[in-house]
Amino acid sequence: MSGDASALLAQIAHIGVDPERGGYTRPVFSAPELELRAWFIAQADHRGLDVEIDGNGVIWAWWDAPDARRVDAIATGSHLDSVPGGGNLDGPLGIASALAAVDVLRERGIRPVRPLVVAAFPEEEGSRFGIACLGTRLLAGLVDPQRVRELRDDKGVTFAEAARGAGLDPALIGPDAARLAAISAFVELHVEQGRGLEDLGQSVALAGAIIAHGRWHVRIDGRGDHAGATRMADRQDPVVVAAETVRALRAHALVVDDARGTIGRIKVTPGGTNVIAASVDLWMDVRHRDEPAVRRIVEEVTAATERSAAAEGCTVKVTEQSFSPTVAFDNGLRERMHAVLPDAPVLDTGAGHDAGVLAGVIPTGMLFVRNPTGASHTPAEAARPEDVAVGVIALADVLETLITR
Ligand code: HGY
Ligand code: MN
Ligand code: MN
Ligand code: MN
Fold first, then answer.
1. Cβ contacts of residue 290 below 8 Å, gap of 6+?
2. Chain-wide mean pLDDT for the chain?
3. Cα–Cα distance between 312 and 40 in angstroms, integer?
4. Residues 342, 387: Cα–Cα separation, whole Å
5. Is the pLDDT of residue 303 over 90?
6. Any idea which ligand is nearest the CA of 227?
7. What is the number of other CB atoms lying within 10 angstroms of the CB of residue 346?
8. Is the C-beta atom of 122 inside 6 A of ligand 1?
9. Could you tell me if the CB of 192 is within 6 A of ligand 1?
10. What pLDDT is attached to residue 2?
């Protein structure tokens, strides 16, 4: 089992399987994700790594240096939570590869002169509480802890309640500058979410940049009524306004070179076939390499929605949930990684990552492993075992250079 990330992934392949959607549904602090957290802790314990869980629910598994001082540490890792109906690789591949890389380094007889810590960050997808990379944003002090405590999932459970259910003390949620100051570099390995490596015919790439991306909640209120008893002229139908939002987002994303606009989640209330909706909630995900372009698209779509709402006698409220500016990864670290992996191409990505958040506070780099389908956030996400194995060795080689000097 040692050094074999595919075998480690096989151990969790039964956890959080979603028969209705296909793939995996592992919301943060849900039963499946708690099972994955326990698996990670058991794997870390099995390797003699010293495990601690911080106030935000980040699991840190330490391979200490001989002097046991936890300064100038090298961190690696990723996340265990998933989107609804996601793959088993987005997140867990980075964790499994980090554990396997520890095995490889030990087999090489490597003795760290600085500690190596493997981290599992909670709520990277933001699928349960709405804010992407919530664990790393809390750690870095980029989101208000009280706002986070009060976030509610779609069943009304607060983050504080869910955290308590995971054995955490919500009072301890918040930034940890001292911990970040003790980390001198972070390297995340992740399955590629795109076909760059497949088209290049290579197994591993370095990350260049993450495009700017954000998510907005759109709430449209109308007037619920009977589908049969209400004349068309008398309606204030929020679904009609939502349709305009969908149309406008597609139209505006198409006219801006390589922008990405998505509405993947819409909630109609009360949700009866013979009921005119009282309200609609939808969430927009908008991305582009330039932040101003993202902002412009959101403004245009908001204006179109407001026009449609006025015509329909509805009201609308657009609220920013989270935003990540364009991230360019640390050149110095990437040069060191490139020295180890001279043949690896450098690819930008449209997918957000915890590494994208941490890049704002510590030198950060990413490795991508080939995904033959290029698909992600779907059961079609894939990685060949031979590419996973190449990824583990690449990560081990990068970590070896970082922890031995
Ligand atoms: O949404 C993203 O880009 C990431 O997979 N969380
Ligand atoms: Mn991910
Ligand atoms: Mn993801
Ligand atoms: Mn009736």
1. 212, 326
2. 97
3. 51
4. 17
5. yes
6. 4
7. 15
8. no
9. no
10. 79
Ligand found nearest the CA of 357: 1
- Alpha carbons within 13 A on the beta-carbon side of 93: 30
For residue 71, the CA-to-ligand 3 centroid distance in Å is 30
pLDDT band, residue 68 (cuts 50/70/90): confident
Measured CA to CA, the distance from residue 318 to residue 326 in angstroms comes to 22
Ligand 3 centre to CA of 130 (Å) is 13
- Residue among 135, 206, 223 at smallest CA distance from 349: 206
In tens, the pLDDT along 250-267 reads: 999 999 999 999 999 999
- Tokens for 368, please give them: 């991508």
For ligand 2, the distance from its centroid to the CA atom of residue 90, given in whole angstroms, is: 5
* Complex confidence, ipTM: 0.91
90 is in an annotated binding site: yes
Write out the DSSP string of 14-36: TTTB-TTTSSB---TTSHHHHHH
Per-residue model confidence as pLDDT tens digits over 122-139: 999 999 999 999 999 999
Question: What pLDDT does residue 3 have?
Answer: 85
Distance between Cα 55 and ligand 3 center (Å): 23
Please indicate whether residue 351, judged by its CB atom, sits closer than 6 Å to ligand 1: yes
Omega into 92 within 30° of 0, i.e. cis?
no
Ligand 1 pocket: which of 28, 89, 121, 193 to mutate (most atoms <8 Å of CB)? 193
Res 86: pLDDT: 98
Task: Please check if 56 is assigned to a binding site.
Answer: no
Residue with tokens 């001082």: 69
How confident is the model at residue 1, as a pLDDT?
56
Q: Which atom of ligand 1 is nearest to the CA of 350?
A: 3
CA-based max dimension of the chain: 78
For 238-371, where are the alpha helices, taking DSSP H only? 238-255, 291-312, 331-340, 354-358
Strands 116-121 and 73-79: parallel
The full set of domains in the chain, from first to last, is 5-211+326-403 (3.40.630.10), 214-323 (3.30.70.360)
**Predicted local confidence at residue 314, as pLDDT:** 98
What distance in angstroms lies between residue 312's CA and the mean position of ligand 3's atoms?
36
